[in-house]
Write a structure and sequence with these properties.
Elements: H1 8-11, E1 19-28, E2 35-42, E3 46-50, E4 60-64, E5 70-79, E6 82-87, H2 93-102
Antiparallel strand pairs: 1-2, 1-4, 2-3, 3-6, 4-5, 5-6
Length: 103
């Protein structure tokens, strides 16, 4: 009764420990050009993005982490210039460690 079915992205919410970072990334919405932004925390399942792009909950985007190809993610929440996003596929722990070391 009125219970919403959780999507693949919703099930990943807070499924992993967040690591605080300050890393420059490039992001884009499907079909658009890359835009410079910053990630302020990251886990294998998602990240907090600081960006002046207008993002809406439920929309998809691509994020390019330093040294890696773009990865698809979904916006779970937005609050001003910050958004919480979930990766479509979790990061490998070695990739997460590498990104945190860049910090």
């Amino acid at each position: 009764m009125g219970a919403e079915r959780k999507s693949e992205y919703d099930r990943k919410a807070r499924a992993a420990e967040r690591r605080h970072v300050q890393i420059g990334v490039k992001v884009r919405r499907p079909g658009e050009t890359w835009f410079t932004s910053r990630i302020t925390d990251v886990s294998i399942t998602g990240f907090r993005l600081q960006s002046f792009m207008k993002l809406t909950v439920g929309s998809d985007l691509w994020v390019m982490l330093p040294g890696f190809e773009g990865r698809r993610a979904r916006v779970l929440w937005t609050r001003g210039p910050e958004s919480g996003c979930a990766f479509e596929r979790p990061l490998h722990p070695a990739i997460l460690d590498h990104i945190v070391r860049l910090n």
